[in-house]
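Journal club prep — side note

Before the paper discussion, L.F. wants everyone to see what a predicted structure for a comparable chain looks like in token form. Sequence:
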Amino acid sequence: MPRPRVHDLDALLDVAERLVASSTDVTVRGLAAAANVPNGTIYHAFGSLNALLARVWLRAATEFLNLQTSMVDTASSPVEAVVAAADTPAVFASRRPDGARMLLKVRGDRLFGPDLPDELAEALHAVDKRLVALLVRLARQVWDRGDGLAVEVITTCVVDLPTAFFRRDITDPLVRERLAAAVRAVLTVPPREKDRS
């Protein structure tokens, strides 16, 4: 019979999220000390530090994408759907500040490593696919095309601009207004026509 779990794993993931958001170097020892658990708890529950960090990132990214999809679904027009998608990091940061800082700081593909279980690697790939599907959906809504050139413009609006704007202050209303204006301006210039050769 397995021993009952003594430590709250969600609380451990919360501590790890906070550490990743505020530090560049997270170690098993540092995480265990911050969470007030033995080192073995981390290895027993997650297998490795890499697997734990992937779970932390996956949890935040999934919640972020759920919020982003919801905001896109309720937007009043295709352009406003792109603006809403771009504004999602600020809304997410108001709910989960550490999660937002971590997602802005750490790219999911940096979490892949040799000791990452297959199911986690697949889950991380699935998050990427969800994001790409949302970008394609937005491109089709705005220009009725989902090719690479159209998706590239949407990516500028939804990924590149928010990353640049929110590096300063993700909660500043003026920054959010400027981001919305920048997104709308970018969308006034349609993507290049596809090369027909």
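L.F.'s comment for the group: Residues 49-188 form a domain with the Tetracycline Repressor; domain 2 fold (CATH 1.10.357.10). Keep this in mind when we get to the figures.
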